[in-house]
């Protein structure tokens, strides 16, 4: 039977899962493998559940017909457990965790984790299970995300890049840390620094940022098309990965593919991703699981180190991407599970 892969749920908008689905579809098209979003299609030979879905009954029916159910897992919702969260939002966050866990334990025939960090987190919170599992990092088109192409770094100042999805006052922590980092570079190290923010940032949050640092040079790029990201990566000296406990952030592997070094705290999967001189991952300096304030000084020192040795870091970043994060490698690894 000719393989046909069903992707659920169908995703649009911004975010890591949307980016993954688009890249995976690109890989399927290149290999001439059929795909659909219709979970009830009897021609499906496998279902790739990107996180979770509410279509539990349809998943069970597919599994009962012998269709492979492969669940792709990153991390899980956790902020609602450590910070004040409106009851409806906290309930929704925990419900989504339980849906993921139910699919993982009772419906998935195979599980793919985005990183060893993600795997270990699920093992710790919801116990190890006997379902076959493996770790597959996200991938990127190395011919599109490349150091060659448009986009030049400035010679007269240091450009710090932050790439996020949606930012609002309720999830501003990473942006606030980036502001504190830029302020440290400017006032303690005398660096002429520009902070470039890519993503949807609410006006209220912008006002809050300017109240924190009225003299900081900030360029708000807003939402940009995905094909613009490589040129933006090439114009910066370093990418700050702001997410706490990220499973495998696409912005990081895209940046490395473009030769852009990474600076980040040692949370989530960052230390296993950023290796071989591709950047600097520094201690958080506090309990990030409790959202305590980080130590900015090591982060700033790492930026200074990268600034003074930018070319070797850029070469190492590209080399790391070529070794671990190619789109073809990712797609092949998924197909080994989906189409055995």
Description:
- The protein is α/β, with parallel strands linked by helices and 340 residues long.
- It has two domains: 4-139 and 326-338, Rossmann fold, CATH 3.40.50; 158-324, Rossmann fold (3-Layer(aba) Sandwich), CATH 3.40.50.
- 41% of the residues lie in helices and 19% in strands.
- The strands form two sheets. A six-stranded parallel β-sheet has the order 2-1-3-4-5-6, sandwiched between helices. The chain has a six-stranded parallel β-sheet with strand order 9-8-7-10-11-12, with helices on both faces.
- α1 packs across α12 (327-338), α5 (173-187) crosses α10 (296-308) and α8 (250-257) crosses α11.
- The longest helix is centred in the first third of the chain and has 21 residues, at 87-107.
- The two termini are 12 Å apart.
- The model has no long low-confidence stretch (mean pLDDT 93).
Instruction: Decide which structural class fits the backbone.
Output: alpha/beta
Q: Give the uncertain stretches in residue-range form.
A: none
Radius of gyration: 20 Å
Distance between the termini: 12 Å
The proportion of strand residues reads 15-25%
Domains, number = 2
Protein name: Putative glycosyltransferase
Pfam families: Glyco_trans_1_4
Keywords: Transferase
GO molecular function: transferase activity
């Amino acid at each position: 039977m000719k393989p046909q892969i069903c992707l659920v749920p169908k995703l649009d908008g911004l975010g890591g899962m949307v980016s993954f689905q688009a890249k995976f579809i690109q890989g399927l098209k290149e290999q001439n493998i059929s795909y659909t979003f219709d979970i009830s299609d009897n021609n499906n030979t496998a279902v790739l559940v990107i996180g979770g879905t509410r279509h539990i009954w349809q998943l069970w029916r597919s599994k009962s017909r012998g269709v492979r159910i492969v669940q792709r897992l990153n991390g899980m919702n956790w902020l609602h457990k450590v910070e004040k969260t409106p009851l409806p939002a906290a309930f929704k966050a925990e419900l989504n965790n339980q849906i993921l866990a139910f699919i993982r334990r009772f419906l998935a025939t195979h599980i793919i984790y985005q990183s060893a960090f993600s795997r270990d987190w699920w093992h710790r919170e919801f116990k190890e299970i006997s379902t076959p599992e493996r770790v597959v990092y996200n991938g990127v088109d190395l011919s599109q995300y490349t150091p060659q192409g448009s986009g030049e770094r400035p010679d007269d100042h240091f450009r710090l890049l932050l790439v996020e999805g949606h930012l609002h006052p309720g999830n501003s922590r990473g942006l606030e840390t980036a502001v504190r980092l830029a302020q440290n570079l400017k006032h303690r190290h005398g660096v002429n620094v520009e902070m470039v923010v890519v993503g949807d940032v609410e006006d209220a949050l912008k006002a809050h940022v300017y109240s924190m640092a009225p003299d900081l040079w900030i360029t708000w790029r807003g939402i940009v098309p995905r094909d613009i990201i490589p040129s933006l990566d090439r114009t910066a000296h370093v990418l700050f990965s702001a997410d706490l406990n990220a499973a495998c952030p696409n912005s990081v592997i895209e940046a490395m593919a473009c030769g852009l070094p990474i600076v980040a705290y040692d949370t989530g999967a960052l230390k296993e991703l950023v290796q071989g001189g591709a950047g600097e991952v520094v201690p958080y300096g506090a309990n990030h699981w409790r959202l305590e304030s980080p130590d900015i000084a090591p982060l700033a020192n790492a930026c200074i180190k990268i600034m003074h040795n930018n070319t070797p870091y850029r070469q190492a970043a590209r080399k790391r991407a070529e070794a671990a994060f190619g789109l073809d490698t990712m797609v092949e690894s998924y197909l080994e599970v989906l189409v055995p």
